[in-house]
Amino acid sequence: MAELAYKTKIYYDDTDAGGVVYYANYLKLYERAKQEFFLKKGCDLFRLHYEGVYLIVKEVKANYIKSLRLGEEALVFVEVKRIKKASIELYFQVKVNDELRAEAEILSVAVDTDSRIVKLPDCVSKLLT
């Protein structure tokens, strides 16, 4: 079940000239929601970064249902779909007033400072439990 991870207002710099969120900026919303979700679950991605473990995006499947607009308040929900030895797949939903506006599945892989695939840190691999 998806869990609220991030709440934000849509600001001018999120949008194009028509006041609609530019499609690539949804990825920023998902990334912020991922970081907040992990922090709530006791897994500090900032600490992992300084320890030399990075979660890099390998694949994104995005579905844009209805545009987000300037000034709207968006809620981003996160759900862990799958965890493997070195990867995690998350499902995101963006809603405004309970209306689904966008969704995405993002697969991330753990790598070290030399971009070699490594085992997920324990705090990540335990997110399903």
Describe the structure.
This protein is an alpha+beta fold. It is 20% helix and 40% strand. The chain is built from three helices and five strands, in the order E-H-H-E-E-E-E-H. The chain has a five-stranded antiparallel β-sheet with strand order 1-3-4-5-2. Strand 3 (73-83) and strand 4 form a beta hairpin. The longest helix has 16 residues, at 25-40. The chain is elongated and about 45 Å long. The model has no long low-confidence stretch (mean pLDDT 95).
- The mean pLDDT is 95
Instruction: Say how many strands there are.
Output: 5
Helix content: 10-25%
Any idea what the radius of gyration is? 15 Å
Shape, per Cα inertia axes: elongated
